[in-house]
Amino acid sequence: MSKRAHLIYNPEKECMSRDELHALQSSRLAETVRREYECVPMYRARMDEKGIRPEDIHGVEDLQYLPFMEKTDLRDYYPFELLACPRSEIVRIQGSSGTTGKPIVSGYTRNDVDVWSEMMARTLTAAGCTKDDTVQVAYGLGLFTGGFGAYQGADRIGAMVVPMSSGNTQRQIMMMKDLGVTLLCCTPSYATFLGETIREMGLVPGKDLKLKAGCFGAEPWTEEMRVHLEELLGIDACDIYGLTEIAGPGVAFNCLEKNGMHINEDHVIAEIIDPATGKQLPYGEKGELVFTTITKTGMPMIRYRTHDICSLTDERCACGRTTARMSRITGRTDDMLIIRGVNVFPSQIETVLIRTQGVAPHYMLIADRVNHSDTLEVQVEMTEDMFSDTVAHIENVRRYITEQIKSVVGISTKVTLMAPKAMPRSEGKAKRVIDNRKL
Ligand code: AMP
Ligand code: ZN
Predict the structure, then answer these.
(1) Which regions in the chain score pLDDT beneath 70?
(2) Distance, CA 321 to ligand 2 centroid (Å)?
(3) Looking at the domain that runs over 11-16+96-332, which CATH code has it been given?
(4) Quick one: which atom of ligand 1 is closest to the CA of 240?
(5) What does the pLDDT read at residue 103?
(6) Cβ 146 vs Cβ 248: under 8 Å
C-alpha cells in the first residue's frame, strides 16, 4: 500500500530511551507486586510458597523469580477474587468471547479503562487515524473487548465514531459508503467477508469508498491474509493484538511499517518463555508470550501466560518508536493440532491456501481418528472462476494443495474443494478447526 507518514499519539511514552523505559518499568513492577501481595490472597500464597517477598523485586530482571498466572486462575477465582481493589472501584466488566461455559471476566477500574483507551488511541494513530477520520467499529460491542476498545481509542483521538458492532453486513457497507468511513476496525475474517460483499455489490474501494486503513485483530491470521486484505479493500491493513485479561485490543499494534507489533511497554512487560520449562527465552527466539501489567489497578496480572506463540525484538523501527515489537502470533500452544505426532498450526495451512490461485481464504480443518490413526481434512472454498473450470484443472489444483501442505507441514491430508460460499462466514472470531477426536 501507499506509504503514508508515521503518526505517533504519545511520543513522550512511545519514543523514550530504552534505559528510561527500563527504569519506569522497574519501579512500576515493584509497585504492582507490592500491591498484589497485599491485596490478592491467592497471589500472596503463591509468592510465599516460592519464598519471595515484594521487597525482593527491584526491577525487570527479577520478574523471572515470580510465579505465573494462568487462565485457570481466572476460572478458579471467578469472578472477583483476583481484584486488587475494592469492588466499588470497578467501573467495567469485560469478558472473553468463548461461547460455552462461564466466560473469563476481568474487572477494570476507571484508571484501567483510561489506560486501555490511551493504548487504543496509540494503536489507531499508528494506522494513520486523526480527529479528521471516521472510524467504523465492526468488532462486537459487548463483553468482548474488541468493540469497546476501538470505540474508546477513536473517541480519545476525537475521530468520528460509527459504533456498528459486528454483523448486518449490507448495512455496514451502506454506512461505510454514506459516511465516508476512512478506518475500519474488525476481525480479519470479518474484513474478508466485508471486502467480498463490497465487491459483489459492485462497489470499488478507492472510488466508491474512502477507506484508507484497517485495524484488524482478535484472532490469528497470516501475513498472506494481511496482504490479501490490503488488495481486497485498497487499504493499509494493520495487525492489532490484545486480550481481556490484560486490557483488550491495543496491547500491541502494527505501525505502517507492519514489521511486528509495538508493545505498549510503559503499561505492560512482555516476556517469551519456553512453554515446557517456563524458562525465559532471549529476544529473537520463538516461545510463549507472557505479560505483566504494570499500571492496572483492578485486576493486575503478573506473568500471565497467554499461550500465544511469537517472538520479540527491540531492533529500532523506522517509525521512530523505541518500544519492543512482538512478531505476528503463529499459533496458540492450545490450538496446535497433533496429527500422527506432527505439530500442525492452522496458520501454516492458511499460508499455503492463500498462496494458491483459485481458492478463496475460507477454510476449515477437521481432525478425526480413523482405525486408530489421526486424519486431517482441509476443506477450502473455490473461487467462482475455478468452480466453472474443467474437472481436470480442479483436480490438479487439489493435488497441488495436498503436495504443498505435505511439503510445508510434513503430513498427508485430505483436501476437499468446496463450492463458492459453501463455508460459513464469520462476523467475529472465525472458527477454523473442528477436532472430532476430542468429542
Ligand atoms: P479475547 O480476550 O477473548 O479477546 O481473546 C484474546 C486472544 O485472542 C489472544 O490471547 C490471542 O490468542 C487472540 N488474538 C488477539 N489478537 C490477535 C492477533 N492480532 N493475532 C492473533 N491472535 C490474536
Ligand atoms: Zn514502527
Answers:
(1) 1-2, 97-100, 439
(2) 6
(3) 3.40.50.12780
(4) 19
(5) 83
(6) yes
